[in-house]
Design goal:
alpha+beta, Aminopeptidase, nine-stranded mixed sheet, globular
């Protein structure tokens, strides 16, 4: 459970600024919990097997809304569907190996979706990508921009990564609005980049580095919201 008084995930120098994110165990990359906001309260925690009922309900309720953006297996790939328990087992194994941070998004205590740091590369790269989905009931409330900012700050200031990418289909206006709110720079275009909704799809590539957000991406999001930029 997140603890009051935990240090901020993103620091800064000079001037007062309120705590923006409370972490369950300061300094631990995984497993951990992150909490931010008051209206609504956004909580990120590791995915677990007992999320199955809520996960399946959300996916069924949002099937038509999410299908266009869901990853699919290309021809020739192993397309056997995983049970939810098997999916969680695979995600948790990846997390233990340091390859990903698979978080569930909760809004005011309700299951709302997922946000994950994926494809973590160490060595000279210190790089990862972020992916997410949200129940349409919670869309348009600023939840996903906040959740993405939270995991990016956690990746930068706790996991010590250097660069995060978010790759978005050009048609996905909702996801493009997320990176717009966060003020992320577009750095490239990848034709036929990922197999989505039954075919290879082009993606726009957005990125942020630690140097871009010395006080954290969540701090920048809050500043942009307060100034009306986001």
């Amino acid at each position: 459970m997140a603890q009051d008084g935990a240090r901020e995930a993103a620091g800064g120098s000079g001037g007062e600024h309120r705590p923006r994110m409370v972490v369950g165990v300061p300094g631990r990359a995984w497993p951990n919990e992150l909490v931010s906001g008051t209206d609504p309260v956004v909580r990120l925690r590791p995915i677990r097997a007992r999320d199955g009922a809520a996960w399946r309900t959300a996916r069924r309720r949002n099937a038509a809304w999410l299908a266009r953006w869901d990853a699919t297996a290309p021809p020739g790939a192993d397309a056997r569907p995983l049970t939810f328990r098997a999916l969680v087992k695979r995600l948790r194994r990846s997390a233990r190996r340091g390859h990903s941070f698979p978080f569930v998004v909760e809004v005011d205590g309700q299951f709302a979706g997922q946000v994950s740091v994926n494809n973590i590369v160490r060595g000279s790269a210190q790089f990862a990508s972020v992916g997410y989905w949200i129940d349409q009931r919670f869309a348009g409330k600023g939840v996903i921009p906040r959740a993405v900012a939270m995991v990016v700050d956690h990746a930068f200031f706790v996991a010590k990564l250097h660069r995060i990418e978010i790759c978005i289909r050009p048609e996905n206006s909702n996801s493009l609005r997320v990176v717009e709110k966060l003020g992320l720079h577009e750095v490239g275009y990848a034709p036929r980049f990922l197999h989505i909704d039954g075919d290879w799809r082009d993606h726009r590539i957005f990125a942020v580095t630690r140097e871009d957000v010395p006080r954290g991406l969540l701090a920048r999001l809050e500043e942009r919201l307060e100034s009306g930029e986001a």
